Amino acid sequence: MWAARVRSRTSFRRLGSSLPVSNRLIAALLALLLAACQQKEQARPALWQLDGPNGERAWLLGTIHALPNPISLDSPAFDRATAEATGLVVEVAALDDDKRTALAFHSLSAVAAAPPITARASELDRPVLLKLLTEAKIPADSFNQMDTWAAALMLGQAVSARSGDDSGNGADRLVLKEMKGKPLAEFEGAERQLAIFDALPEAEQRDLLSAVIRSASTAREDGRKLQQAWLRGDAAALAALDHQGLLADPELREALLVRRNEAWIAQLLPMLRRGEKPLVAVGTLHLVGQDGLVTRLEAQGFRVTRLQ
User: Fold this and answer.
1) How many CB atoms lie within 10 A of CB 206?
2) Do 103 and 231 fall within a single domain?
3) CA 279 to CA 295: how far, in whole Å?
4) Can you tell me the distance from the alpha carbon of 293 to that of 282, in angstroms, rounded to the nearest whole number?
5) Is 161 within 8 Å of 62 (Cβ atoms)?
6) Based on the domain organization, do 116 and 210 belong to the same domain?
7) Quick check: 212 and 152 in contact, CB under 8 A?
8) Most-buried pick from 16, 70, 177, 279 (CB within 10 A)?
9) Which residues of 193-307 form beta strands (DSSP E)?
């Protein structure tokens, strides 16, 4: 990256030497703009090393799925973990396969007919729901052939789009690039992940819809709090956030966090017994708190050391 910047600056200097002063000024400004675009925010997310009684080893890295700006994960601890890890384990491996995700979403969520979305929201939530639909320019009848969980996720996506966050800047995508060439495994994949929502009882799907509606007014602020805590690796702040929003509902928390963490550990342990030493990169709220992977793995006799 440094070499590329040097070459870019050199080429602008050579070009500028043969141009009038005004053009040289423009070239210099373009060089400054290029350098600014190349700068990335330095992230220091929480990273742990896992060691077992029989020589098992893994690394646990908390990720975040969308950020407003590009980031760099480079650090001595991260670089060492990615170099020593024998492979990578993520929630969903094919993050760039939008067609596959869309097909899975449609296959699981489509129904012949569903009640109007306004009827599936509580009377208290309806005015806010109608306001959100109007702001996002989404016709209310768009959800007439869609399960409630899917309507909630689509509405949540529309709310998130207003924040300026970009999934292309997500840490999970960056880790996938950094570890390219090493064995890759996924805990769930897009289909299985969406199936978790599809398996929710209708009452819980409506609770999900309500949570999205009620958190919309503070979604941007809450997102920034999560991002800042993640960027500086503040595990305590992250643990405080893992009981908010959707996770404040006990049943949703059980389905979307607790049971998934249990399933992931059940997949991770055989990998460790086979001698694999993976870097496990999953959503950061899955790692922290009493229900997090760190605490649960410690309870199973593993030594978990914070690296950064």
Assistant:
1) 19
2) yes
3) 17
4) 10
5) no
6) yes
7) yes
8) 279
9) 278-283, 303-306
Amino acid at 278: P
Q: Each residue of 29-79: pLDDT tens digit?
A: 554 454 445 568 899 999 999 999 999 999 999 999 999 999 999 999 999
Cβ-based neighbours of 214, under 8 Å, separated by 6 or more: 125, 128
Q: Is the separation of the CB atoms in 56 and 50 below 8 Å?
A: yes
Domain that residue 229 falls in: 44-306
Tokens standing for 167? 């999934």
- On whether the pTM is more than 0.90, the answer is no
CB under 8 Å to 15, separation ≥6 — which residues? Answer: 27
> Do 59 and 8 lie in a common domain?
no
Q: What letter represents residue 260's amino acid?
A: R
Chain segment 196-217, per-residue pLDDT in tens = 999 999 999 999 999 999 999 9
The HSE-up count of residue 246 (CA atoms within 13 Å, CB side) is 21
Whether 74 and 30 share a structural domain: no
